[in-house]
Amino acid sequence: MDAETLPYALDLVASSGVCLSPERRAALRTSLLLVRRDYRFEQVRLWGRIQGIRGVYYIAEGVGPDRAGSRSRLYSLNCVDWSLLPPPSEEIITMTSVLKGRFQGDPSYEYEHFEKKDEGERPYEEEGGVLIKEELRLVATIDQIDKAVGIVPRGAYVKSPLGPVHENRNFEEAKKLSSYFHFTEPVNLKNKTLLEKADLDPAIDFLDSLEHDIPKGSWSIQVERGGRVIVLRSLLWPGLTFYHVPNTKQHGYIYFGHGEKNKDLPFML
């Protein structure tokens, strides 16, 4: 959700429970524009908010000329002061994968994890557990949500012959899942045969479509405001809302949730 159009975009997703006070909206827009200037980003987006037990994390991300390239992520506890998060390494993702339950809302909070080991037939917990800061868990959770449900409309971005991905000023929209892509490194596309790839436009179809997501039915797509707004909601990661205004460049997604995946979804569909 671009910081430039933040107040307007927040109104479009208000039906999903994404609500902020006028003071918060003003503080976020002003501080994010300062972040763009200070860090020399080409674009800054409000990624969303993760609600903790004792506090709230507001998340933003900055991007450079390559819109699909690496993103710098920042968090704030008060919508004014922002701290840069480390990039999501494999070590961080593996280390934090064992953590469960709600976030505390304190980046310095430390989780103590005990690894279970087997000795003969009786498992026991190793003495002296590993301390993991919540800030690292925040890094891994944002990356996991982005890879699973961060999406864009088909044709919203074009890939140049030299590699970088740029915004496309003219693109079509539709009311079906095949018209929306995951905005991350493709997985299913790489497994397609040469015959299947022959029907694709390499400048536009360089990402994975939502129609192949597992489990089937993990997305809710609706037309709101008399057809003026298309809204997609993730049932796998409750709190993720995508919006698009037909015949315009206005689109984006935002996450307002607890940072927990709905692991029971396959049994609910």
Task: Characterize this entry briefly.
The chain contains 6 helices and 16 strands. The protein is of the alpha+beta class and 269 residues long.
Keywords, please?
269 residues; alpha+beta; 8-stranded mixed beta sheet; two-stranded antiparallel sheet; globular
Please, could you describe this protein's structure?
By secondary structure, the protein is α+β, with helices and mostly antiparallel strands. It has one domain (3-111, 127-261). It is built from six helices and 16 strands. It has helices spanning 6-12, 22-39, 90-96, 134-149, 194-197, 265-268; strands spanning 43-51, 56-63, 72-76, 83-84, 110-113, 116-119, 122-125, 130-133, 151-153, 157-159, 165-167, 180-182, 219-224, 229-234, 240-244, 251-257. The strands form five sheets. Strands 4-3-2-1-16-15-14-13 form an eight-stranded mixed β-sheet. Strands 5-8 form a two-stranded antiparallel sheet. A hairpin with a 2-residue loop joins strand 6 and strand 7 (122-125). It starts with 5 loop residues before the first helix and ends with a helix. The relative contact order is 0.14. The model has no long low-confidence stretch (mean pLDDT 85).
